[in-house]
């Protein structure tokens, strides 16, 4: 049986490492695509991972101030995703309509 | 004792985050990838945040943690819904394991209607 | 709703009077406040707080259970080399009518077992749901309606 402190230290170091690896995987998907929607999904998950990382970092440094950072980040992070998704939605809608009218070549 | 609980919560939470990332890489199409991203990602981040609350054991920190969880749980499905619609409307191919698609008929019907390409619609 | 605010205020007062103490104290104060309000029930003839609160707890517990189960299933599909998913998109007729009800059903659905709300029809009668492990269309539809939607409607109506 390992001591409680030691267990927690191992856990938090492991968590930081695992989160970094996860971010690397998500970045691979972000670069790889293949469609724009895939990239938006990857970016959405990336914001959640960054949020988790900030919280893990707060535990790592034993500093509760970082939790305020996490709150502010959680407030604004999803706006980017929403904006990109709306943009995609409208862009494809418009493109489809132009294609129907044959105006796309102009 | 609380250190063990916090440690286990942190392990499981980061594990779920890893599963979400792995799912994004491994699953076949956009919609199934979103299953991994929204569910496993939200649960992983939530568990990690609860682990933090257990670790600090202060009322203010607990309240902050609950605020973060509420924000994530409220926003994640909204974002997922919008991305899902965007990916479906943009005609991203579904994986060949998909065996039923009842949305297709409705989508075609919507596109055939007069209003769909009216300028006000976008 | 006013009673809920009152209940929260009672719990906050309890924490202040005991000078600190964490979430357990707050929860205990909340439970105590709920008991006191319940004892004085005849004073508030019109409130439906006492019917709705247990239903809300019921919905929350159900939701947490589904969240755990669904994640284990997705986890299994992700970490094993062989894919077991059989995705499909089905339309679910909605009994929910108001904005809040539809919002709750769609969002909670997005967070629970292998389901993801993709689109809502223009007349707001049908919710199109992407299901990751779809075996039987009618069965899944029935599960969504009797499981999640029924519990949401119990809270909002």
From TrEMBL, chain A:
Q: Which GO terms describe its molecular function?
A: sodium:proton antiporter activity
**Cellular component terms (Gene Ontology):** plasma membrane
The way it spans or sits in the membrane comes to: Multi-pass membrane protein
Keyword line: Antiport, Cell membrane, Ion transport, Membrane, Transmembrane, Transmembrane helix, Transport
Stated family? Belongs to the CPA3 antiporters (TC 2.A.63) subunit F family.
Write out the annotated subcellular location.
Cell membrane
PANTHER family named in the record: NA(+)/H(+) ANTIPORTER SUBUNIT F1, NA(+)_H(+) ANTIPORTER SUBUNIT F
User: What protein does this entry describe?
Assistant: Cation:proton antiporter
The species is: Desulfatitalea alkaliphila
Note the superkingdom of the native organism: Bacteria
Q: Which InterPro entries match?
A: MrpF/PhaF-like
Under the heading Pfam families, the entry gives: MrpF_PhaF (PF04066)
Which chain regions cross the lipid bilayer?
6-28, 40-60, 66-89
From TrEMBL, chain B:
Determine if Membrane is one of this entry's keywords: yes
Source domain of life? Bacteria
Keyword Cell inner membrane listed? The answer is no
Question: Which InterPro entries does the UniProt entry name for this protein?
Answer: PhaG_MnhG_YufB
Entry's transmembrane regions: 6-25, 37-56, 62-83
- Offer an example of a GO molecular function term for this protein: sodium:proton antiporter activity
Q: Please provide the record's keywords in A-Z order.
A: Membrane, Transmembrane, Transmembrane helix
**Name of the protein described by the UniProt record:** Monovalent cation/H(+) antiporter subunit G
Cite the source lineage.
Bacteria, Pseudomonadati, Thermodesulfobacteriota, Desulfobacteria, Desulfobacterales
From TrEMBL, chain C:
Q: Name one GO cellular component term.
A: plasma membrane
Q: Which UniProt keywords apply?
A: Cell membrane, Membrane, Transmembrane, Transmembrane helix
What's an example of a GO molecular-function annotation for this chain? Answer: monoatomic cation transmembrane transporter activity
Give the main localization category: membrane
Topology term for the membrane: Multi-pass membrane protein
Spans through the membrane? 6-39
Presence of the UniProt keyword Transferase in the record:
no
Source organism, top-level taxon: Bacteria
Which InterPro entries does this UniProt record tie to the protein? Cation_antiport_E (IPR002758)
Q: Name one Pfam family in it.
A: MNHE
Compartmental location = Cell membrane
Q: What is the similarity comment for this entry? A: Belongs to the CPA3 antiporters (TC 2.A.63) subunit E family.
Report the protein name in the record. Na+/H+ antiporter subunit E
What species does this protein belong to?
Desulfatitalea alkaliphila
């Amino acid at each position: 049986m390992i001591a409680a402190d030691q267990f927690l230290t191992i856990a938090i170091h492991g968590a930081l490492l695992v989160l970094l690896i996860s971010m690397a995987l998500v970045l691979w998907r972000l670069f790889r695509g293949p469609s724009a929607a895939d990239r938006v999904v990857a970016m959405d998950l990336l914001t959640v991972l960054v949020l988790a990382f900030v919280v893990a970092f707060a535990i790592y440094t034993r500093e509760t101030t970082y939790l305020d950072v996490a709150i502010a980040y959680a407030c604004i992070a999803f706006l980017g995703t929403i904006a990109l998704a709306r943009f995609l939605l409208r862009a494809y809608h418009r493109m489809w309509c132009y294609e129907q009218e044959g105006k796309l070549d102009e | 004792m609380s250190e063990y609980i916090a440690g286990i919560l942190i392990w499981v939470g980061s594990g779920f985050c890893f599963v979400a990332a792995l799912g994004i890489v491994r699953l076949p199409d956009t919609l199934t990838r979103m299953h991994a991203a929204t569910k496993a990602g939200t649960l992983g981040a939530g568990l990690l945040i609860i682990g933090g609350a257990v670790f600090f054991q202060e009322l203010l920190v607990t309240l902050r943690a609950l605020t973060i969880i509420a924000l994530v749980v409220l926003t994640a499905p909204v974002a997922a819904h919008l991305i899902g619609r965007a990916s479906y409307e943009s005609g991203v191919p579904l994986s060949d394991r998909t065996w039923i698609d009842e949305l297709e008929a409705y989508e075609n019907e919507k596109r055939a209607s007069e209003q769909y390409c009216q300028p006000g619609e976008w | 709703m006013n009673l809920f605010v009152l209940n929260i205020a009672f719990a906050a007062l309890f924490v202040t009077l005991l000078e600190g103490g964490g979430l357990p104290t707050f929860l205990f104060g909340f439970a105590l406040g709920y008991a006191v309000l319940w004892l004085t029930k005849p004073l508030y003839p019109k409130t439906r707080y006492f019917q709705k609160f247990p239903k809300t707890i019921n919905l929350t517990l159900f939701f947490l259970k589904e969240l755990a189960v669904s994640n284990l299933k997705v986890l299994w599909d992700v970490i094993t080399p062989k894919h077991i998913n059989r995705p499909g998109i089905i339309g679910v007729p909605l009994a929910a009518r108001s904005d809040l009800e539809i919002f709750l059903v769609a969002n909670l659905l997005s967070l629970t077992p292998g389901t993801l709300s993709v689109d809502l029809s223009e007349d707001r009668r049908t919710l199109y749901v992407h299901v990751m492990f779809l075996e039987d269309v009618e069965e899944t539809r029935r599960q969504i309606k009797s499981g999640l939607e029924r519990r949401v409607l119990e809270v909002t109506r």
